[in-house]
Amino acid sequence: MSRNLFDPENFIQPAQAPGLTQENPMAVRYAVKGEVYARQGTMVAWRGALSFERKGQGVGNFLKRAVTGEGLSLMTVTGEGEAWFASDAAHCFLLDVDESHGLTVNGKNVLCFDASLSYEITTVEGAGMAGGGLFNCTFGGTGRLALTSAGVPLVLPVTPESPVYVDTDAAVAWSPQLRPSLHRSQSIGSMFKGGSGEAVQLKLEGEGVAVVNPGEPKPAQAST
Fold first, then answer.
1. CA–CA separation, 104 vs 83, rounded Å?
2. Is residue 62 classed as helix, strand or coil in its secondary structure?
3. Which residues contact 137 (CB under 8 A, 6 or more apart)?
């Protein structure tokens, strides 16, 4: 951005095509022509003929109860216009999902996504509701979604010979074909972020990738 905030070149111009795009490292823009889902509390600005509806039964409460255990409610944005989404100045990044490449996402890292995407609740073996973000949503179909991370995310390859162990608070997403499980490692508990004594990590095995949050996530706040 140039020195003067209000120079014409700093003004955001109308979108040229519908869909989800990166506005800057900490915000995304959705040019809506129809319907889109977003996490409640993440819409920071909008213009056009849009309406917003809190999801009750169905996607919103289902995700709130089953995905995170910390509370994740969705809203539906419908109509024609533009909306901008961000979350506590976290880094935002876009991912394309197709029939060949799905994605399993920690619910608290979901920002917004195309209504064309399918999703189902998945759990990590051995994790109950007390596991918080260990209840996740696996996206399929074809479409784009925006996720958040407390910094520039780490993308780690996972191979059958080299499983990856992730701090449970730092797991953002992973390939759905990976086998997730809980791994207890008392000897290195204090070495993990926030670790003290016995630590529980997310173990990812198989062939795929893991996306890891490199920063300290903020405590979840109850939605009003």
1. 25
2. helix
3. 63, 67, 104, 105, 107, 110, 119, 120, 121, 122
- CA dist., res. 84 & res. 31, Å (int): 9
The amino acid occupying position 103 is L
Highest mean pLDDT among 30-39, 70-79, 100-109, 114-123: 30-39
What secondary structure does DSSP assign to 81-141, as a single string? EEEEE-STT-EEEEEEEBTTB-EEEEGGGEEEEETT-EEEEEE-BT--GGGGGGEEEEEES
Separation between Cα atoms, residue 164 and residue 23, nearest integer Å: 32
How many Å is the maximal CA-CA distance in the chain? 57
Long-range Cβ contact pairs of 15-20 (< 8 A, separation 24 or more): 15/82, 19/114, 19/144, 20/94, 20/112, 20/113, 20/114, 20/144, 20/145, 20/146
For the entire predicted model, the pTM comes to: 0.81
Determine contact, residues 210/109, Cβ cutoff 8 Å: no
**Which amino acid, residue 42?**
T
Band of pLDDT at residue 191, cut at 50, 70 and 90: low
Residue 69 three-state SS: coil
The strand pairing partners of 51, in sequence order, are 78
CB-facing half-sphere around the CA of 144: CA atoms within 13 A? 14
- What whole-number distance in Å separates Cα of residue 30 and Cα of residue 77? 10
Q: Which of 152, 154, 76 is nearest to 115 (CA)?
A: 76
